[in-house]
Amino acid sequence: MTHKKNMVLWNQVCETDPKYTKKLTYGAKLTTIDAQSQILKATEIWGPFGGNWGLKSENYDVTSLTGTCVYTADFYYLDGEEINQFPISSDIKIREDFMKSVQTDALTKALSRLGFNADVFMGRFDNNKYIQEMNAKFGDKKEGVSQKPTSNLVSKQNEEKERSLPTIDTIFKTKIEVGFRSKENHTYKSGYKTIEELRKDLQYWSGRSELSDTQKVHVNNLNVLIKHHNKKAIENGALGGI
Q: Are 192 and 201 in contact, with CB atoms under 8 Å apart?
């Protein structure tokens, strides 16, 4: 009975819809999973990211000497009436959007430990017969087609518009290092010269509906951090109300 109870979540999330996979054409030719589809599945089970599940105590340790970023965090999720959590980590070479990429990789690793897309990680997608079975189960006859969830698709016109706007990722590009320290004592580095500039952009982005789940988390985290920073600054008489 205990064994069956332990496997409830695993059995619920272990199978993968082939339309959310892509076969790499180089190296070991591994099968990759659309990270957004994992977030979609987790949201179906626990609700929106940042509520009953998500990441906390995030830290980005950038080492200029080696050109790498080591990411650490605690992944938490609701298990019945209790919140379970465990540490996760990942590392990546510094490149454009490296913070988003390393966080996404760590999140995928965390979900895989709970059984998400276990059939992919266990190599079952190397078997064409198994892929056909999953196509039949999920109702998609196109084998191994990579496709974004509908909620993550935007029109070409909106994509062009987004490219002309300042992106939320600019918040993390360093011009002048301005630290906002959270209760977990980790630091976000801003690419803004003043808190007022950062506050103005955050107000704009907080009202946007087409942000990805990862970007929404970044906006929420920065809003929390800037409020914490403001409180301390007011206590020190160094900053007016934000």
A: yes
- The most distant pair of C-alpha atoms in the chain lies apart, rounded to whole Å, by 68
* DSSP secondary structure letter of residue 167: P
Q: Where are the domains of the chain?
A: 7-149, 157-235
pLDDT digits (tens, 9 = 90+) for 140-162: 544 444 444 444 444 555 555 44
Q: Label residue 186 left, alpha or beta by phi (over 0 means left) and psi (-120 to 50 means alpha).
A: beta
What whole-number distance in Å separates Cα of residue 174 and Cα of residue 155? 31
* Single-letter amino acid code for the residue at 74: D
Q: Are 91 and 68 in contact (CB under 8 A)?
A: yes
Tell me the pTM.
0.56
Pick the CATH number of 7-149 from 3.10.20, 1.10.760, 3.30.390, 2.40.10: 3.30.390
